[in-house]
């Protein structure tokens, strides 16, 4: 049976639009760091590199390569961990050119370092060499987090973050740092901004 994250991992990817506490287990990812405006060509190239590698893994059986433990699955959604550089943190208004990010796409448990290297060889010239060389294969454990589904424009995310901060205050929870994770459930190229669905999440600890 095909593994579909929308059905199997609802708690992780389809939370309600009210804040909740969640324990996020360790998972495998292809990751790629960057900085600057997410509307830039450099950002687009990084996203394309991660998707190219992820689909290379997904389509390996069609190339005659069947990884040990392979199963049919839907490619996981794009995610990003967002921060600001030192100058950006001093500003009262968000300067997108000061953003620092780490983009990633989760991989199934059967993916290994060997498969990662095989995927890199398969995408070859489809991806800029610089991007390809910077992609890493990592296991990441977020642990205890507060999350909430944000519905609407990326520019209105502060409204949802305010609800999440209020939830923390009412439940003796503290936010561990200013970084946050976004999981893009809808495709901004095909979805009106007011209908975009983005999981917002930050690391937390109980007081």
How would you sum up this structure in a few lines?
It comes from Pseudoneobacillus rhizosphaerae. The protein has 207 residues and is of the alpha+beta class.
Can you identify the CATH superfamily of the largest domain? Regulatory factor, effector binding domain
Low-confidence stretches: none
Fraction of residues in helices? 25-40%
Distance between the termini: 42 Å
Total individual domains: 2
Radius of gyration: 18 Å
3D structure, described in words:
This protein is an alpha+beta fold. It folds into two domains: 12-25 and 141-207, Alpha-Beta Barrel (Multidrug-efflux Transporter 1 Regulator Bmrr, Chain A); 27-140, Regulatory factor, effector binding domain (Multidrug-efflux Transporter 1 Regulator Bmrr, Chain A, Alpha-Beta Barrel), CATH 3.20.80.10. 30% of the residues lie in helices and 30% in strands. Strands 1, 2, 3, 4, 5, 6, 7, 8 and 9 form a nine-stranded antiparallel beta sheet that branches. The chain starts with a helix and ends with a strand. The model has no long low-confidence stretch (mean pLDDT 96).
């Amino acid at each position: 049976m095909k593994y579909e994250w929308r059905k199997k991992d609802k708690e992780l990817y389809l939370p309600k639009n009210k804040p909740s506490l969640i324990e996020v287990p360790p998972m495998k990812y292809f990751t790629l760091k960057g900085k600057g405006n997410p509307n830039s060509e450099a950002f687009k190239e990084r996203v394309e590199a991660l998707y190219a590698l992820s689909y290379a893994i997904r389509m390996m059986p069609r190339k005659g390569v069947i990884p040990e433990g392979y199963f049919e699955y839907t490619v996981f959604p794009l995610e990003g961990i967002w921060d600001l550089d030192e100058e950006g943190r001093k500003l009262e208004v968000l300067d997108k050119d000061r953003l620092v990010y780490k983009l990633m796409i989760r991989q199934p448990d059967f993916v290994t370092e060997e498969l990662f290297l095989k995927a890199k060889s398969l995408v070859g010239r489809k991806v800029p060499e610089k991007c390809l060389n910077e992609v890493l294969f990592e296991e990441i454990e977020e642990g205890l987090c507060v999350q909430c589904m944000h519905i609407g424009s990326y520019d209105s995310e502060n409204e949802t973050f305010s609800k999440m901060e209020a939830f923390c205050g009412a439940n003796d929870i503290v936010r561990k740092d200013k970084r946050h994770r976004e999981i893009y459930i809808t495709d901004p190229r095909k979805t009106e901004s007011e209908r975009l669905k983005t999981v917002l999440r930050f690391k937390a600890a109980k007081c």
